[in-house]
Amino acid sequence: MGMLNPEKVLKKYVPMTETAFYILLSLDEPRHGYGIVKHVEKITKARLLLGSGTVYGTLTKMQKDGMITVFADEERKTVYERTDIGMLILATEINRLKELHENATKYGGDVNDHQKI
């Protein structure tokens, strides 16, 4: 069994890369790698296009760290789901992002006045 100390896992993953965040977020239901790629593409309106190497590398790392587990092995497709530690990490990261958003809104001035680069 991999790393199951929540404190260690928290330190390793929070703050989270956008890739890791969306992969974990996509596991709101069990999905295989390609299903994750398509889901992330859909919910980010194709802004984030994940390569299969990136996805499988991250899934392997997350599995080793106890954040996700294999839900089922269907013919040639491994289906993953979040563990309790994965849920804890995701909740912690979402709370961090909420704080970022609140502070950006409160102190960011009217950033919409500035043209996009």
UniProtKB/TrEMBL annotation:
Protein origin, superkingdom: Bacteria
InterPro entries per the UniProt record, alphabetical: Metal_resp_DNA-bind_regulator, Tscrpt_reg_PadR_N, WH-like_DNA-bd_sf, WH_DNA-bd_sf
Pfam families noted in UniProt: PadR
Domain Transcription regulator PadR N-terminal stretches: 28-88
Protein name as annotated: PadR family transcriptional regulator
Species: Paenibacillus etheri
